[in-house]
Design a protein that fits this description.
Layout: H1 3-10, E1 11-15, E2 23-27, E3 34-43, E4 47-53, E5 56-61, E6 64-67, H2 74-79, E7 93-98, E8 102-108, E9 113-117, E10 121-135, H3 138-146, E11 151-153, H4 154-174, H5 180-185, H6 187-203, E12 207-218, H7 221-255, H8 267-278, H9 291-304, H10 309-323
Parallel strand pairs: 1-3
Antiparallel strand pairs: 2-7, 2-11, 3-6, 4-5, 4-7, 8-10, 9-10, 10-12
Helix pairs in contact: 4-6, 7-8, 7-9, 9-10
Length: 324
């Protein structure tokens, strides 16, 4: 090995970092080389460089270009007693950190979260969405996450972050303060609540959660089917009122035509019977419900998914047989 090769492996005269997507921090590869007076340091936008002395942060550099000398290394100068400037090369660990926002990361519940819903009692909820973060406190991040690692990426810290999100989600939803239908109906408000809930966990690692979005909130399939069927059955009362309203409207319309009530012929008798039903029924008890109305109700239930086509056909056949 020649003298020049030996010297080139002993001293470093340019220090910079071109970060790759997903990288959060690196320890600059010195490979036992030393930093000489006048070494060029480049810190790009969205980066911060730290010089360490015996494992402790010494001097920090914001974005810019620097020629390393005693004047811009005040802490190291004091620690190493460079009262007249450093003439000899020195060793120092140099760490680069990115302060850029890490965008469009995904989170989700690996297991359903059990919540006590105001309306439906205990429910198991799944949720999915996205979030973003950035390094907020470099000193805390350096100690808690980076340590003496050579490289740290988003993928390295994501399991911890997703765990913190799951814990915050369970704590925020587990109290059951808001009904599920309201949570699902206002995901923007829920997102804001959860953003505030995850912040303390992120802060303990020197991070800030910059955005948090709930994109999906759902129940297990079986529970959702049960609620859908319950909703369909509750619609039955509305269908009954709708049919009665439509019949009354038809009577009013026919009465307004030339000939008045006489113009509707035999339909007037049916209308009168329905009208009697609306006012409490005939003397001697409530009249039996008209089979045609029952068929209409059954058809509405089939459309809503509460009963099957086969069930509708069977019940319709029974009702039609009564008419015949």
């Amino acid at each position: 090995m020649g003298l020049l090769d030996f010297l080139s492996k002993q001293f470093v005269d340019v220090i910079d970092w071109t970060e790759q997507p997903g990288e959060l921090a690196i320890r600059y590869p010195m490979r036992d080389r030393e930093i000489s007076n006048g070494t060029q340091l480049t810190v790009r936008e969205g980066q911060t460089a730290f010089f360490h002395n015996e494992g402790q942060i010494a001097d920090a550099f914001k974005p810019g270009q620097y020629r390393l000398e005693t004047g811009n290394l005040p802490v190291l100068t004091a620690l190493m007693n460079w009262d007249k400037g450093f003439a000899s090369p020195f060793k120092s660990d140099v760490y680069f950190y990115t302060t850029k926002e890490q965008l469009a990361l995904k989170w989700g519940t690996t297991q359903p979260i059990t919540v006590r819903d105001k309306e439906f009692g205990p429910l198991r909820i799944r949720a999915f969405g996205s979030y973003s973060f950035r390094i907020e406190d470099l000193a805390v991040f350096s100690v808690k996450l980076m340590g003496t690692l050579e490289r740290l990426t988003v993928a390295d810290v994501e399991p911890q972050l997703r765990g913190a999100i799951a814990t915050a989600l369970a704590a925020a939803l587990g109290k059951g303060e808001t009904a599920f239908v309201d949570l699902a109906g206002d995901q923007a408000a829920l997102s804001a609540r959860l953003l505030a809930a995850v912040q303390p966990a992120f802060a303990q690692w020197g991070l800030a959660c910059t955005s948090f979005q709930v994109e999906s909130l759902s129940l297990p399939e079986g529970v959702q089917e049960h609620l859908d069927k319950g909703s369909s059955m509750r619609v039955l009362g509305d269908v009954d009122r709708y049919i009665r309203f439509q019949t009354a409207e038809a009577i009013d319309t026919a009465a307004a035509q030339p000939g008045g009530m006489a113009g509707i012929g035999a339909g007037a008798a049916a209308g009168a019977a329905i009208a009697a039903g609306m006012t409490g029924g005939q003397a001697g008890g409530a009249p039996a419900e008209d089979p045609y109305q029952q068929i209409q109700k059954l058809h509405a239930l089939m459309t809503a998914g509460a009963i099957t086509q086969a069930e509708f056909d069977a019940k319709k056949a029974v009702l039609l047989a009564k008419i015949g």
